[in-house]
Amino acid sequence: MALKYAYYPGCASKEITKESDRSTRKLAKALGIKLHDMPKATCCGAGLLTDYDKQLTLAINARIFAQAEEMGMDILTICSTCLMVMNTVNHELRNTPGQLERTNKLLAKAGLHYSGKVEIKQLLWVLNDDYGLKKLKEKVVNPLTRLKVAPFYGCHSLRPSDALGFDDPEKPVSLENTIRAIGAEPVDYSGKTKCCGFQIDLVNEDLAVDMTGKRLLDAKGETFVSRIDDINIKGADCMVTPCPLCHVNLDSYQEIAEKRLSRKIVLPVFHLSQLVGLAIGLKEKDLGLTRNMVSPESIL
């Protein structure tokens, strides 16, 4: 049976990083994964609404879960912030006594009910577990041999670990395993689980750009520290991230980081769906690579 999911791309992937949504849809179709849109779903609150009205945050997310439950599917999202918010809410609804009951009283006004059974997954998780990397490897027609790829997880793919729980927040392996499955070499570096700076772009842009530049230079090997003996230690040719918001900083802010640091970086940054798509033979136009600010032409 084909894998199927209630598809929740998130606000950013619908507008700011449309290429991540486009490439995910193309990749899913090529792999035989069925994505079903959720036209009535709203924004998850992006982690900001909780500071103003926690119960409303629980309710609007439970409303999304209830829709997926009616569809008989788990949710697949490509936004790590949505992943974090939704899983944090789901964890609270399941584990805080009385919380699910209180939330369902609000949902009842909209004729909805949530039982707590829906799982919220990221594309990276689906490829590793539900689809399987062995099966993915069999789909590779253009192995990315000799390409050194820096994995960048982003904060919200890993933390809070009690709500997410898919990978070790300190020593994750899912992105490296995916990189190997498509024939490339993962590069280990100290910044792969750290913040890209996106969360403070509007608060302190200078600091955010410094953080972005440091992550990129770490990946290139200029401040490189190897932690695992069997992983390449010569620096990356490109970077890949499962998070569209991290992609915004690492790709779109890269030129600003170069100016601030007075040094060239020129490190192409791929969405996970783009890099995997290349390996299984999807065309550049289908993956939206012309929207990437740092040209991936040298990689292609």
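The above is record 1. Record 2 follows with the same two-line structure.
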Amino acid sequence: MIALPVLPALVTRLSRKEFAAFQALIFQMTGISLSEAKQNLLVGRLARRVQALGCENFADYFAYLSKRKNADELQAMINLVTTNETYFFREPKHFDFLQRQAKRHPRSAGIFRSWSAAASSGEEAYTMAMVLAETLGRHPWQVVGTDISTKVLATAQGGHYPMTRTEGIPLPLLKKYCRKGIRQQDGTLLVARELRERVQFLHGNLLSPPQGLGQFNVIFLRNLLIYFNQETRKKVIANVLPFLKPDGHLIVGHSESLKGMHPALVQELPSIYRHSR
């Protein structure tokens, strides 16, 4: 009888001092403020990574992150600790607004551009693309998606999703812009190439946004600010505004508010703000 190897138990103990060190590092890198209540969540997300690297405890893992300045491992940690919840046509009134703005866009004004600033796995950006393709047709438009997590960006760039993710996509758009998987890909969908070619995904941290993005008519920054403290929220908004065209619109989640965040932002509708500079 062959004895199977005994796998080491997952590291599950994290002292308050160790948690405080991870809190500070994660805040420095992402702006996310982890409350004390998130300690068990952090353990759950990092335990297998600690084990995979052969670290005996979280202190060893933190030393590995800090002393080696291992950029790849720091990114791997960010991928694990960031929350990435999204789906197609989430909060549909925002996409109705995007459609209205695209319809009003003067053809003489050139390309209409929208930015999914916390793109996650891409559903928001591809929803934007479906709306703009339907509204503007052959007139020039572009969608850019950025996210701090390289893991979800890989999914976004592929545009390949489980069929269960299609809920929310109107049937005519589902048939027009999504390809149903067959054989080994049964139960999945692939966003049509003609749509994927109009969406660009880039790695980006809103604490230090990538340069050269240009300016946008509409920016979606939804359901992200809730993870930041007030000071970081203001910093993120100040970083994003230079990319928003005059009279362009910034859209946040329905549970978020930009009241008093920046004097150049004027609320037009719930969760929708105009750049008044």
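The longest strand covers residues 244-251.
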